Amino acid sequence: MAFKRGFGIVLFGLVCCLTLNARALAQVNTAEPEFWVLTSLEPPFSFRSERGQLEGYLIEVMQGILAEADIQQEILAAPWERLIQESKHKPNVLVFPLARTPEREEDFHWVLPLTSNVYGVLGNPSNDKPIATFSDVNDVTPIGVLESDFRHKVLQAENIRGVATYDDYDSAVSHLLTGKLRSLFFSDAGLRYFCFKQNADCSRFELLYQYDVLTSYIAMSKNSDTRHIDKLNAAAERFLNSAEFHRIQQNWLTKLQEQGPFKLHIENGVLNLW
């Protein structure tokens, strides 16, 4: 009798254990994988308002795509270096805006182009001789650049001396104005914005050397779940052709032109900063 009672208890426990394991396995198989949306703030296209909320053209576009994909996920702002590290080493990380460079081509799934910009070395042409090749950048140092940005990597690869790294371009532009820097590896549109923001006259600064024209994208880290990739690609295509996307673009085109001497135009859905 005792044996039967004991065997029944063991059998009942085994059945319960198998049932719980099956339920847990089912939850694992059906649960949405962990998913992150990260951005590095780039005023005036993305910034934190006085109320602490993320705002700007890029933020509204990203929110529109997430809504179109029926994904409820908060956009988190992170320093540029952390954004790159997270997206390189973790799956299911959506990042924006990310410049599409040959070195990054195979490291990400490219979802949607956002902005296109002319990048190069900016400085005072009256003080410096023309730059014919990139190695001539050594003649206009110290040169400022955003730390861990792709432009920082270019300067390192080209063995440029006198590179000064910054956490933000606001400080770098200030140092260019005061003469602590002779040049910046930046964009003309970016320089004009920060000069306008600081109420400074930057008319003496020009593009000394054009490095490249690059397009920034919404991108997904490699090894991401295919469900996310497919859903976002489809949502981005629908949103690109929507009236809401057109409204956001026209609204921010007007706002941005009111914030400084920007040369902006829209072509094939991409905001070109020249």
TrEMBL record:
UniProt keyword annotation of Signal present: yes
Database matches in InterPro entries: Solute-binding_3/MltF_N (IPR001638)
Coiled coil (UniProt feature): none
Domain spans labelled Solute-binding protein family 3/N-terminal: 37-256
Keywords associated with the record: Signal
Signal peptide: 1-26
Source organism superkingdom: Bacteria
One Pfam short name: SBP_bac_3
Protein name: L-cystine-binding protein FliY
Organism: Paraglaciecola mesophila
High-level lineage: Bacteria, Pseudomonadati, Pseudomonadota, Gammaproteobacteria, Alteromonadales
